[in-house]
Amino acid sequence: MSRITLAKGLNAGLRKAMEDDPKVLLMGEDVGKLGGVFRITDGLQKDFGEDRVIDSPLAESGIVGTAVGMALRGYRPVIEIQFDGFVYPAYDQIVCQVAKMHYRSRGRSPMPMVIRIPFGGGIGAVEHHSESPEAQFAHTPGLKVVSCSNPVDGYWMIQQAIACDDPVIFLEPKRQYHADKADLDETATPAPLFTSRTVRAGTDATLVGYGPTVKTCLRAAEAAEDSSLEVIDLRTLSPLDLGPVYDSVRRTGRLVVVHEAHVNLGMGAEVAARVTEECFYSLEAPVLRVGAPDTPYPPSRVEEEYLPDLDRVLDAVDRALEY
Amino acid sequence: MTHSAGDSPREFGPDLAEVFGPSQRDGGPDLVQLLTPEGERVHHPEFEVDLSAEELLGLYRDMVLVRRLDTEATALQRHGELGIWAQLLGQEAAQIGAGRALRRQDHVFPTYREHGVAWCKGIDPLDLLGLFRGVDQGAWDPAEFGFGLYTIVIGAQTLHATGYAMAMQRDGVVGTGEPDRDAAVLAHFGDGASSQGDVNEAFIFAASYNAPVVFFCQNNQWAISEPIERQTRIPLYQRALGFGFPGVRVDGNDVIATYAVTKAALQRARDGQGPTLVEAYTYRMGAHTTTDDPTRYRLSEDVENWKLKDPIARVTAYLRRMGLADEQYFTDLAAEADDLGARLREGCKALPDPRYIEGFDHVYAEQTDELVAQKAAYQAYTDSFENDQTGAAR
Ligand SMILES: Cc1ncc(C[n+]2csc(CCOP(=O)(O)OP(=O)(O)O)c2C)c(N)n1
Ligand SMILES: [Mg+2]
Q: A57: CA distance to ligand 1 center in Å?
């Protein structure tokens, strides 16, 4: 048992995966000596060597493209994209190559690759450092997309993603890296990777979040004076595991989905559509979405106005309850 | 040359020790230098420049002031007034030399570190601070100043620069022989950026269309924690040849040489002779940004060695030796730097925070009804707090 941050959980999870499987390689900008700009790979190059923890040239398309080649030869590359906004030079490789390799080779060429992306805002950064590109990947068949919200999940989910034979886009809420601590029991049995989890029980309305917004939802649920809110951490965005959400909505009749990404065509839209199909007669109000307006990420001095916060979540809950 | 399978990999390609070893440590034999680190004026057969005392003092003043701008901004970040700052410390000569080689009609595409070039183009340093404070994403008008917005996505601007240069060709402002008309583009990027696909594509396009663009690479030896050896196995300026245009390595800590080389390269471009790659060989004396800790990946010994090549100290030495400036000059300049520092300190703290809601008006040239509705809803939501004196919406 140890008390860890998300950064530490991910670091320990990566270490464990590398110990367990010699085919696991890490690659990215500054992941070696520096241990990554967020120190997620801290100490790994020292212990596993430069062949397994690879500082790459500054070229994201190159990183993902060469990782494809390594995966074709049986390696399990784990890539770090330094910030969410810098994944786009690799977008072509990810969407056209990584995502489709298994399909077009009819399973002969699996792509057991993990692409780690620190995502989301709230760290006072300059532009391109605070984005939430999850829907762009979840929209692509062939990619799996998950997001951890807490240190313990970070530890287990990164290992499970690495063990997965499909390419996994692994979204890490950077704002949480060094925030809260949690107790990790390395002997526990984790839930399967592609499952959602109810993290707080409630009866009046359901809040759904993932990554950074799970904490926002939990804080909102605690702050809500007159209503009892259930909170679900999606954890997996593609495939979606909405069973727990359906169960919850059948009881509460009200659902608010919260993400930092734009509301327009965001994950909330998909969740809303499916819940409407599955739980139509249980719904007491339309499914509401809390997320970013359709403006680019703003200058950091006003980012808290743009990001969903406790008030915006509770405002949506009120609207759902009053409906 | 043929190789059998058993050959040591060393025989393929250049020997790293030759490219990065001791003989190259000071830039190698091809380095264009006009003022030595000791402050001695030397000459180069190809690049010469006749600077009046006044011009040289101008370059010196620029370097001293942008160094102050940099020190002040770093301190402001430490005091929480800036979110982050990308230091230019050590790269003053590269930036001022390049910046002063520009003509009014030339256009610059910067990275996020080009504070010295911005200075030369007349951008108010407070506008640079605004971006790093997080009140805007670039407050100047690129067209007005001939200076693009800072570009954070590594390498992207080199393609924009090339396209801008191609547009200049179409506007007939290249190779007319009229000094006030002929224009060129200066594209900045770093040693790390040289690995990006975008940068390599920019080289291809520029070569293919003979575009009037000067690719100005400040090789400061580091891309965050990664040394230059991770990006290249030949000196960067030599890459140009493979793309079909000339490359020059200049002492980036020598403001006279950087000025001379950039001036020549820009003139070549304006004359319609196509692109040039200028590799300004320099060193990032500070951290990558204020959030970086370089002690994790580099030796203080290297930094100490580069201190001996300081871009400002060598000009100070030269000015003193030649009697081009008296003590009063240095005292006055120090006072001017202090004034700038004070202005930046106060100005930075006084920069008004933006109103998020104004962002809704800048997403499109032709506003959409959808966004108008979102803006109204956002306004109504924030208003609901003002009506509720408890400060919360419930
Ligand atoms: C596409 C992209 N990938 C990664 C980054 C993160 N990043 C910012 S600066 C930097 C290093 C740049 O090195 P170099 O080009 O040498 O310029 P320098 O910072 O040394 O001036 C990196 C990796 C980025 N901004 N954009
Ligand atoms: Mg560099």
A: 10
Residues 6+ apart with CB under 8 A from B304: none
Residue A289 phi, psi (nearest 5): -120, 135
The structural domains of chain A, with segments of one domain joined by +, span 2-184, 197-322
Contact call for B360 and A61, based on CB within 8 A: no
Q: What integer is the mean pLDDT of B116-137? A: 97
Closest by alpha carbon to A232, among A222, A246, A290? A246
d(CA B99, CA A216): 47
CATH superfamily of this structure's domain A2-184: Thiamin diphosphate (ThDP)-binding fold, Pyr/PP domains (3.40.50.970)
pLDDT at A73 over 80: yes
What confidence tens digit (pLDDT) does each residue in B26-40 have? 899 999 999 999 999
- Domain A197-322 is found in CATH 3.40.50.920: yes
Give the max Cα distance, chain A: 59
The per-residue pLDDT of chain B, averaged, comes to: 94
Contact A295 B291 (CB under 8 A): no
pLDDT at B141 over 70: yes
Length of chain A, in residues:
323
In chain B, where are the structural domains located? 16-350, 356-386
Tokens of B154: 């590594």
Q: What is the pLDDT of residue B13?
A: 56
Helices B125-133, B53-78: axis angle to 10 degrees equals 20
Distance CA B145, CA B148 (A): 8
State which ligand 1 atom lies nearest to the alpha carbon of B289: 19
Query: What is the assigned CATH class of domain B16-350?
Result: alpha beta
Predicted local confidence at residue B14, as pLDDT: 60
**pLDDT for B389 beyond 80:** no
CA distance A113 to chain B (A): 22
Please give the ipTM for the structure prediction.
0.96
Q: For a substitution probing ligand 1, which of B154, B217, B231 has the most ligand atoms within 8 Å of its CB?
A: B154
Q: Do domains A2-184 and A197-322 have the same CATH topology?
A: yes
